[in-house]
Each structure stands twice: as structure tokens, then as C-alpha cells.
Amino acid sequence: xxxxxxxxxxxxxxxxxxxxxxxxxxxxxxxxxxxxxxxxxxxxxxxxxxxxxxxxxxxxxxxxxxxxxxxxxxxxxxxxxxxxxxxxxxxxxxxxxxxxxxxxxxxxxxxxxxxxxxxxxxxxxxxxxxxxxxxxxxxxxxxxxxxxxxxxxxxxxxxxxxxxxxxxxxxxxxxxxxxxxxxxxxxxxxxxxxxxxxxxxxxxxxxxxxxxxxxxxxxxxxxxxxxxxxxxxxxxxxxxxxxxxxxxxxxxxxxxxxxxxxxxxxxxxxxxxxxxxxxxxxxxxxxxxxxxxxxxxxxxxxxxxxxxxxxxxxxxxxxxxxxxxxxxxxxxxxxxxxxxxxxxxxxxxxxxxxxxxxxxxxxxxxxxxxxxxxxxxxxxxxxxxxxxxxxxxxxxxxxxxxxxxxxxxxxxxxxxxxxxxxxxxxxxxxxxxxxxxxxxxxxxxxxxxxxxxxxxxxxxxxxxxxxxxxx
Length: 471
Known about the structure:
The model is unreliable at 16-20, 35-45 and 67-90 (pLDDT under 50). The chain has 471 residues and is an alpha/beta fold. Helices cover 46% and strands 10% of the residues.
């Protein structure tokens, strides 16, 4: 510390009269001696004061911060602030930020929010624990074993059922009936055939050179065209509609074979598995058959399923080999197909097993209808008239059914070739009329019903006839 600063501090503590004379004397002495620096040997000398903040009490008050009592923070060695008797530093003080009226208002509103949330949660839990509103709600939530009542166990059971139903939106199909009601009995196919899409009808592969490539299984066109006269064919894919819809349209561009197409959105998601629930198809399970490559997909109705090996994209004729069994199943007067399907020991090898049964049936038919080699009256009369005698073997009913089915298939293909352009134009008009359905209508009303489509087509034909008559 310099002499000048030390003297200034001492003079500030003296009376004014003595301070003037002492200042004059010191100034003369300092002028003779010159600037001198020395160090004080007094250990109790106070340290230099720290810089003070420019935020004074007046500025804080003008800014809206009310003045509150200062909080004294004790030093580590006690409230006196002394450290081994060598320091005279006083207690350090810290100013706490004052709460304004806005802060108090925010705290009050937050407390109201917490209280209202807590009360709403209690009321919501109590509402979910209420008795069943109706028998339909009880059945919809699969809670037949949970009765009404206000015992803790029954209340918790109803709460659990209702809470679990809130999360089924992401694991259940959007509609309870995935297909419209079946056609009248006179126009209805005998059975419904549900076919998986991937690795059964098509196979997709990806490589770095060509990207995604999709192959159609050999014999698919004949398979769909031939069986469409016996079955209502429904394609049920495991991928999303945005990826598989165009593929289905290419398989049947004129909608002559495939009645409906369902995709991943119609599957149930349970325990990490995609399940194709046939009970949601709005069809009789006794007359429904599903062919799939994944056992997990048909775990809901395994008795209706035929599990086959996935197709790897190589050329084969497996679809053609399945036609005889499926044709036989559809042409027999059966009320329930499940006992017939379960009669096979290995349904994954049903083609070979049915071929063995058919061979035994033919042997039995040949034995029962064996013709005698002895001449009969018809042969004798034919010889007298000079007519050739030709003995024809009696055909099995199964052969007659196949001949009739093949004839119907050929006639249908001929008709489609002759009217292909008309069908494509009709399909284009249907897309223009029913392709502008909004998402809200699909979620609330569902897809257009066949009756609505037929009505719209009839109205369009009437308008075209009136326009033609006017010209």
C-alpha cells in the first residue's frame, strides 16, 4: 500500500480541523522523501474491500423486487466470523430473490391444477369401476365372468377390463366385420377360400442390382380362375395395404376371380404375432378354408387351416396339384369342412394324401362297376343290324364334375376375352365414382356395400340410356 493511500485513510478518521494541518504536514514530508512503498507488519490489518454490485436497493425496488431481510450465512468457524483470531472478516451476506405478485399467482394456479388433476383421476377411476352399462358391453369386453357389484374385487376387475380395452385400438382391426354380408343363397358360392399372399401366391426378393422384384407363382391364373366358380376367394395379406394393393390388382385386374382383399390392417396383434381371425370375416366358419404358410397366423382357427410350405420363387406346379382336393371339397354336400380337413393326418402334405385316397376310390369304383364279358341282348341286336358294339366304361362322378368344371372355365375365359374392354371400362367408372371416399367415411361407414355399387351402376346406365334416346 502506498503512503498516499494510507494517509488518506487515516485522515478520513480524524476531525476536520486536525485533518487539514496534518495533511499539509504530510504533503511536505512526502514531497521531500518521494514515493515510498512499505508493508505493514500488523497482522490484523484489514484486507482491501471487494467491488460492490451496481444493483443497489433502489434499483431493485424500482424493478419490482421487494426488499426482504437479509439472511446471514455463518462462516465455517462460527457466527463471529473469526478464523484462528487472525482475521476480522465479518459474516458473509446473501440476498435472496423476492417473490413478486406474478410468482405468487403462478404458484396458486399450479396448486389448483394439481388438485383438479388429482380429483379428476379419482373420478375417472370411479367411473371405470361402475357396473356394466349393458349386456353388450359385458360381451364386447369378454367379461362374462365379472358380475356387477361394488366389492373391491369386482370393481378392480371391471376397471382392468375397461382400461385394457382402451389400448386395443392398435391391436384390433378397425371393423368388427371385415367383409360385407354374403350374397343371397341363390348367388352364393358354396365355400369361402382365404389365401395368403406372400410366399404362397407371390414371392418378393431384393438385391443390390435390381432392388425389389416380385414373382407370380406358376399356374396362379388357372388356380384362381378355375376355383372361382366354386369358392368366394379372399386374399389375406400380411403386409400393409399401401404395399400389397397394387400387387393384388395385377393378379386380377378385372376383379373376375378375387372377391375381396384384406391386408395387415385387418389382422389382430397379440403377443407379438399377427393373427388372421376368421371369425371377423362375417362368414360361416363351417364353410371357410384358409391356406397359409405361417402357423401363427391361423392360430385362432387352426381347424380351418391348411399350412403349406412357403414358396421360394422356384418354378413348381403345387397350386395346380391342390385343385383336385379343393374342387372335391366344394362339390360335396358338406355342412362343415372342418371334420374333413382334420381327417388328414398331415395337412401340410394334403396333396399326396388326397391322391392316395382318390386312387383307392377309383379302384373301388372299378371293382363295383366291372362289366361282364358275356354278350348281352344289346350286343346281339347290334350284331344283327351290323352295328359296331362298343362298350364304354362308366365314368366316376368325380370325373364328370371335373369335365363340367373345365367346360365352365373355358366358357368363362372365352367370355372374358370377348368382353375384356367392357369390363375394364366399368372398372374405371367404378373407381371414379367410389374412389373418392374420404378417410372419415371409411372409418365411420366402411367401404361401399355391393348393393350401393349396383344401385349406382343402375342409375348410371339409366342416365346413359336417357342421353342416347335424347340424341
